[in-house]
């Protein structure tokens, strides 16, 4: 049974996280001291500088040689179980595209918590510094593996829409402009580049009536897009550089020069608060806090706070986690949805309002 002292420790870790979020929300909605144009600049600063440097600092300070393999395996198994269930859902859904759309959103809700911003500050006072180090290991996997998987799913959906929508009944070719970093649904990007017809990738349809291109065709369209998204994402560099420095630091027992460490800290220390501030700005820019119907909101909350932790409990038990490790695994799976899945959903125009509510 949780004691009042433990409850206070949890609240003292969680409540301060939401203070900057509420300030940001009020600054836009109630007091009008920040304009929508200024919100874009603040969000850009958070995405390009604050959060990547925070990721680098957290990962580089963690001893990855002491990684708990079973703990990481439980997290991986949870996501694989959800992916397998969603793959079956896609096959059985009346519309394969509708099934894919829902599957991407459900994967985000059930398996991608806000580990960096909420998870570490919450779990550290509950279970100690070692628990926080374990959660950092999941941050590494989440940023490098699972966010890449999420981008792949979004691009897979975009490729299907692009090819099936433009060439519904015959053989054709698709050429992707080298500057395009995503196969957006309508073929256009924010920077003005366009997905064009050309002679790069040949598309299916021997019977003249097929609408779904072969998987190999979609894969040839998707992989370049995923690569371009990753190499232009500051979080990718933050993860790789943080991982590299962590391996060097704890292998050879060397420290970062003070002038470099202090330069990173001055921005990364602001990363946590700025990330929550940015989330509050996102919420304030939406027409309403609760997007969609109450039924949809209740269903997504059940997926986030019940289904995700339940699958994690099954995965943890399967790999042999017991005691405190089991509790840490379940708690980190039950924290709110991460910010990055919402950012991706907004960029790809897929259920962004629902994820903002989450």
TrEMBL record:
| Entry superkingdom | Eukaryota
A Pfam family the protein falls into: Mem_trans
Q: What does this protein do?
A: May act as a component of the auxin efflux carrier.
Which InterPro entries would you find in this protein's record? Auxin_eff_plant, Auxin_Efflux_Carrier, Mem_transp_PIN-like
Mode of membrane association: Multi-pass membrane protein
TM ranges = 6-25, 45-65, 77-94, 106-128, 134-154, 264-284, 296-319, 325-345
Q: What is this protein called?
A: Auxin efflux carrier component
Gene Ontology CC terms:
endoplasmic reticulum; plasma membrane
Its main localization is: membrane
Where, subcellularly, is it found? Membrane
Q: Which UniProt keywords apply?
A: Auxin signaling pathway, Membrane, Transmembrane, Transmembrane helix, Transport
Q: Give the family from UniProt.
A: Belongs to the auxin efflux carrier (TC 2.A.69.1) family.
Q: Which GO terms describe its molecular function?
A: auxin efflux transmembrane transporter activity
The processes (GO biological process) annotated in the record are: auxin polar transport; auxin-activated signaling pathway
């Amino acid at each position: 049974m949780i004691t009042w002292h433990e409850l206070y420790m949890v609240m003292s870790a969680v409540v301060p996280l939401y203070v900057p979020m509420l300030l940001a929300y009020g600054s836009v909605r109630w007091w009008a001291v920040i304009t929508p144009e200024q919100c874009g600049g603040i969000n850009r600063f958070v995405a390009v500088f604050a959060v990547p440097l925070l990721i680098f600092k957290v990962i580089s300070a963690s001893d990855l040689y002491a990684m708990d393999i079973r703990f990481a395996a439980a997290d991986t198994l949870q996501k694989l179980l959800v992916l397998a269930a969603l793959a079956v859902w896609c096959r059985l859904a009346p519309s394969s595209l509708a099934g894919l759309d829902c599957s991407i959103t459900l994967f985000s809700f059930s398996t991608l918590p806000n580990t960096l911003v909420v998870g570490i500050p919450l779990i550290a006072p509950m279970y100690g510094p070692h628990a926080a180090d374990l959660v950092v290991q999941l941050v590494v996997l989440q940023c490098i593996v699972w966010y890449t998987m999420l981008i792949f799913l979004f691009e897979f959906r975009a490729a299907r829409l692009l090819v099936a929508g433009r060439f519904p009944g015959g053989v054709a070719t698709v050429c992707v402009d080298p500057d395009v970093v995503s196969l957006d649904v309508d073929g256009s990007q924010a920077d003005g580049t366009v997905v064009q017809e050309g002679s790069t990738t040949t598309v299916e349809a021997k019977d003249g009536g097929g609408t779904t291109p072969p998987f190999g065709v979609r894969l040839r369209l998707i992989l370049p897009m995923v690569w371009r998204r990753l190499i232009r994402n500051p979080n990718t560099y933050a993860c790789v550089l943080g991982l590299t420095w962590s391996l060097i630091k704890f292998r050879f027992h060397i420290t970062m020069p003070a002038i470099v460490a202090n330069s990173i800290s001055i921005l990364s220390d602001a990363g946590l608060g700025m990330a929550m501030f940015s989330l509050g700005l996102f919420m304030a820019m939406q027409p309403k806090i609760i997007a969609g119907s109450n039924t949809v909101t209740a269903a997504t909350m059940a997926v986030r706070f019940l289904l995700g932790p339940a699958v994690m409990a099954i995965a943890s038990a399967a790999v042999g986690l017991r005691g405190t490790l089991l509790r840490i695994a379940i708690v980190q799976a039950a924290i709110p949805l991460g910010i990055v899945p919402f950012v991706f959903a907004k960029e790809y125009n897929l259920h962004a309002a629902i994820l903002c509510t989450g």
